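Why should sequence recovery work at all? Because a backbone constrains its sequence more than one might expect. Tight turns favour small or flexible residues, buried strands favour hydrophobic ones, and helices have their own preferences. The token representation captures these environments compactly. In the example below, the structure is given first.
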């Protein structure tokens, strides 16, 4: 069974940093776009950042641009989300997802085929 496993979530004060990791089990996603999403209760899942297969191309939601950095290490089959200058409004469950394309970064959750179970990020003021 293919799974994506996130780690690195936790609680931090505003202004702090966290790094999330996402690693697959069951197969590799080195040739595919990877994305990070987040969701809070009662709201739709929101695109945060995406990265193409090579890591050269990235795309960010306006709300995190300049504060978050997505990267990948295909040798380790791992995708990262470095989050800095965290704000209380960044509090959410963060999910990593694997897309169906290698090059085109898309923002719609329905265009991602595999998902992790999510990791909680809580930012206190």
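From this structural description, the recovered sequence reads:
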């Amino acid at each position: 069974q293919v799974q994506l496993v996130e780690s690195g979530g936790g609680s931090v004060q505003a202004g702090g940093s966290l790094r999330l990791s996402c690693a697959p089990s069951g197969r590799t996603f080195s040739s595919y776009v990877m994305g990070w999403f987040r969701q809070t209760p009662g709201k739709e899942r929101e695109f945060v950042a995406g990265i193409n297969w090579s890591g050269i191309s990235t795309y960010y939601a306006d709300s995190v641009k300049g504060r978050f950095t997505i990267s990948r290490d295909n040798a380790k089959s791992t995708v990262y989300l470095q989050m800095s200058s965290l704000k209380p409004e960044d509090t959410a469950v963060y999910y990593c997802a694997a897309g169906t394309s290698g090059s085109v970064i898309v923002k719609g959750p329905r265009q991602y085929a595999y998902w992790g179970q999510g990791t909680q990020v809580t930012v206190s003021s």
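A few observations help interpret the result. The longest strand covers residues 18-25.
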